[in-house]
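Priority: medium. Attachment 1 of 2:
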């Protein structure tokens, strides 16, 4: 006879369609079919939830199906796993907010390119509608001493580090953390990851922060320009390379990618986050969205090739345009397909909600 399994918990997490940073939902299931230490992805059943309560359903059939796609150790519960899942309509088609499905197909089709990403997620910690620890009814001292700072001027370090540790417990590829240019603004980096793993680990890292914010009554703010005026906006710079770029003479492939991006930039930036026009003004270490530029060691260009990469003649480049509120699946897929000239596989602009600033962008260009 087999020993009965000690019950344990699976927390299914999914993107519920409004965005990929706050609208992350989850529910718990007791698992008894397999011991927790032996559980693999296949052991987690397909599940569902009430799509009418999340405004995702179509017609009278309110169920949304959730299919497990990745499993992680649970950062907050002892006897538990976290199960990242994709949303589908009952007929089996991907729910409209499920941007992972197409991204996974594109990365699988071109897996020989071994596309590698590292994303730099900037954010503000907020409390009661204003940046955490900012003075009541006023502003702190201007920017200068906060970036990578240590001292009483720095706000929120304990939260940034609690998030960092929880991500490491989950096995997420979080490669670092630093205080950013504005007070209560921080950054964490996710990568290097290959293909779809970049989006998955970014979604999970954002979910971890939702839970920490919930515990302390805080909000993680991913707006590209939450505080108007002389305060930095928040971006999500994407570092990117393919196998060819990382090999000897790869600088040729890097420059070819930048030349390809020149041809598609007007549509590419539409995948780089909502309200990004408020951040990308040409000031505060940004370029203008209405033109495409690249250079070595530059921070006012669309893309930057590092001095070290240029000297080595191989490596990666950085796309500095994406905003903090990007959908990481859409943004990574779009950068990859546009860089490589895989236009047939590129995510379609038609799936995006048209933003008012696009018209101005198209005029300027």
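Attachment 2 of 2:
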């Amino acid at each position: 006879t087999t020993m009965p399994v000690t019950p344990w918990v699976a927390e299914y997490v999914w993107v519920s369609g409004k965005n990929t940073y706050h609208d992350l939902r989850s529910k718990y299931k007791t698992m008894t079919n397999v011991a927790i230490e032996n559980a693999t992805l296949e052991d987690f059943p397909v599940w569902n939830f009430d799509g009418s309560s999340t405004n995702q359903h179509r017609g009278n059939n309110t169920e949304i199906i959730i299919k497990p796609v990745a499993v992680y150790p649970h950062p907050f519960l002892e006897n538990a796993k976290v199960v990242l899942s994709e949303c589908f309509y009952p007929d089996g088609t991907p729910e409209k907010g499920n941007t992972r499905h197409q991204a996974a197909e594109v990365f699988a089709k071109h897996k020989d390119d071994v596309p590698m990403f590292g994303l730099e997620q900037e954010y503000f910690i907020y409390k009661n509608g204003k940046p955490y620890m900012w003075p009541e009814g006023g502003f702190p001292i201007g920017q200068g001493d906060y970036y990578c700072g240590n001292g009483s001027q720095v706000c929120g370090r304990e939260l940034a580090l609690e998030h960092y540790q929880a991500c490491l417990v989950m096995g997420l590829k979080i490669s670092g953390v630093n205080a950013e240019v504005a007070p209560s603004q921080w950054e964490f980096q996710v990568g290097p990851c290959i293909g779809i793993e970049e989006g998955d680990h970014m979604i999970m890292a954002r979910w971890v922060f939702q839970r920490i914010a919930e515990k302390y009554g805080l909000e993680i703010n991913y707006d590209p320009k939450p505080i108007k005026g002389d305060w930095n906006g928040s971006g999500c710079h994407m570092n990117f390379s393919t196998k060819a770029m990382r090999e000897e003479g790869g600088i040729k492939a890097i420059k070819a990618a930048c030349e390809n991006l020149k041809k598609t930039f007007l549509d590419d930036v539409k995948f780089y986050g909502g309200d990004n026009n408020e951040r990308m003004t040409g000031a505060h270490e940004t370029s203008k969205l209405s033109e495409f530029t690249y250079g070595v060691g530059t921070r006012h260009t669309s893309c930057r090739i590092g001095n070290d990469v240029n000297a080595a003649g191989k490596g990666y480049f950085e796309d500095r345009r994406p905003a903090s509120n990007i959908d990481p699946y859409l943004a990574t897929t779009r950068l990859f397909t546009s860089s490589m000239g895989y236009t047939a596989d590129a995510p379609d602009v038609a799936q995006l909600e048209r933003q008012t600033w696009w018209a101005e962008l198209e005029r300027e260009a």
